[in-house]
Automatic annotation (TrEMBL):
UniProt family annotation: Belongs to the PPR family. PCMP-H subfamily.
Alphabetical UniProt keywords: Repeat
Superkingdom of source: Eukaryota
GO biological process terms held by the UniProt record: RNA modification
UniProt name for this protein: DYW domain-containing protein
Organism: Linum tenue
InterPro entries the UniProt entry points to: DYW_dom, E_motif, PPR_At4g14850-like_plant, PPR_rpt, TPR-like_helical_dom_sf
Domain DYW: 161-253
GO molecular function: RNA binding; zinc ion binding
PANTHER family recorded: DYW DOMAIN-CONTAINING PROTEIN, PENTATRICOPEPTIDE REPEAT-CONTAINING PROTEIN
Taxonomic path: Eukaryota, Viridiplantae, Streptophyta, Embryophyta, Tracheophyta
């Protein structure tokens, strides 16, 4: 904030939308959601765009802030920029606090408005060939090996302390069922194939068409430590770099 304020007061540099986005993102990461919202609303000569609101919406998902999440979606509606992914994030927020009535109401709203979500698809290139995976995918020619590898990875990560983040599952299931439903997300299958099909130490690079869920994020972090692999996931909004159990994320500003 000191650097941000110095730009204007000391050097006369007017912050642009990207500066505000970076500050809002930093505030969101540490849970200062109200301050981030106040910062966005304080913008006088600039109009918040959809990318800026989605940065805050993502932080609302992480910190389970229902009220602000609903407010942010309202701003996206005002901009006529709302997308199916925004409602999925809102569903994530509702499910994380166990508000299944609002999950049901939001699903009904999406159905009535014809808002359809895209299937999550993750791809990985091995030896010049693109391999694509959907959730619970059984179309790959090496599917049996992939699922065997996936089961072994799950065992090793659990020994290392990884626990599935069941708040990422949007259906009202018991904990065991939620854990199973999360086990075979598309990026996890792509990571399993990367472990199976590349030599030890090879960087695993994955592209996904949607946001990476919180559980897959934690899974990749644990995998990078247990298997000593660098994992790079480019999803719809960010580059996620996983190394030795740590992660850094870069926004597409």
């Amino acid at each position: 904030m000191l650097f941000f304020e110095t730009m204007t007061k000391q050097y006369g540099i007017k912050p642009n939308i990207h500066h505000y986005g970076c500050i809002a993102d930093l505030m969101g990461r540490v849970g200062k959601l109200d301050q981030a919202y106040e910062l966005i609303m304080s913008m006088k000569e600039l109009k918040p765009d959809s990318a800026l609101w989605r940065t805050l919406l993502g932080a609302c998902r992480i910190h389970h802030n229902v009220t602000l999440g609903e407010t942010v979606v309202g701003h996206l509606v005002e901009l006529k920029a709302q997308e199916a992914g925004d409602y999925v994030l809102l569903l994530n927020i509702y499910s994380s606090v166990g508000d299944w009535e609002k999950v049901k109401d939001t699903r009904r709203f999406m159905k009535e408005r014809g808002i359809q979500t895209s299937l999550g698809c993750s791809s990985i290139i091995v030896k010049g060939v693109v391999h694509e995976f959907l959730v619970d995918d059984v179309s790959h020619s090496r599917k049996e090996e992939i699922y065997t590898t996936m089961d072994e990875i799950n065992k090793q990560l659990k020994i290392a302390g990884y626990v599935a983040d069941i708040t990422s599952e949007l259906h009202n299931l018991d904990e065991e069922e939620k854990g199973h439903a999360l086990s075979y997300h598309s990026e996890k299958l792509a990571m399993a194939f990367g472990i199976l099909a590349t030599p030890p130490g090879t960087t695993i690079r994955i592209a996904k068409n949607l946001r990476t869920c919180v559980d897959c994020h934690e899974f990749a972090k644990a995998l990078s430590w247990v298997y000593n692999r660098v994992v790079v996931i480019r999803d719809r909004n960010r580059f996620h770099h996983f190394r030795e159990g740590r992660c850094s994320c870069d926004d597409f500003w």
